[in-house]
Amino acid sequence: MVHFQSLNRSHVFLVGILLLIQFSFPIQGLLHFYTDAGARRCFYKELPQGTLLIGRYKLEIFDEDAHEFYSPLDKLNTGILIDVEEKFDTDHRVVHQKGSPRGQFTFSALESGEHRICFTPKSFYKRRWLDGGGNDVDALKDSRFKKSRIMVDFSIRDGEIFDTKHSIKVNTLTEQVNSINDKLTDIKREQEFIREKEESFRDQSERTCERVIRWSIVQIGALVITCVYQMIALSSFFVKEKVS
């Protein structure tokens, strides 16, 4: 009897721990499903007003020859159409997004109610007949897929908390931008100071060059005058010597 009571208490304690873990950590809806190309698969979620829905997805297409799923080689033309519609408001579409084979989307619920989230695997490839499509082998192969497998992970967060984190990031980026602007202002100030010093040095160099040129001209003029005077003096001397 004592052994049974101790076992029962241990079982209750273990169940309590499991329940505590379950309610302490958020549960994310990780799932995968199979669908045909172009087929629309939808999920329904009841979202309170102001909540943020984050969906992560991955698309794999089926290779008929290898009999296995693989990630599309053409990331540009093979992907998923994502639609989010407000079921309570006559299927009003609030999100229509063309996604790559792997990515995520976010949606903020403006009103409380049931929302429909739909995925449509599709190839957006259009063969160009003018160039023969010879350079689009991967795109042509991926465009012919018939079956696909989509893995989806939904997580719901509080929009206010997300906005607060977003505001903190924006403020941090703003501070960094202001700091960069201050540094740029200091750099511009230093550049202007260096430019002023260069202009002053250039003016001084030009004045020095002008003085050197003027002094050279004066020296050349004096030398010419001296040469002319000596020639005249020598001519007069030779004339006097000849006369005498």
From TrEMBL:
It is a single-pass type I membrane protein. GO terms for cellular component: membrane. Keywords: Membrane, Signal, Transmembrane, Transmembrane helix. It is found in: Membrane. The keyword Transmembrane helix applies. It holds the Pfam family EMP24_GP25L. The chain crosses the membrane at residues 12-34, 215-239. InterPro entries: Emp24-like (IPR015720), GOLD_dom (IPR009038). PROSITE patterns: GOLD. The keyword Signal applies. Residues 40-156 form the GOLD domain. Belongs to the EMP24/GP25L family. This is DEHA2A08866p. It comes from Debaryomyces hansenii (strain ATCC 36239 / CBS 767 / BCRC 21394 / JCM 1990 / NBRC 0083 / IGC 2968) (Yeast). The lineage of its organism: Eukaryota, Fungi, Dikarya, Ascomycota, Saccharomycotina.
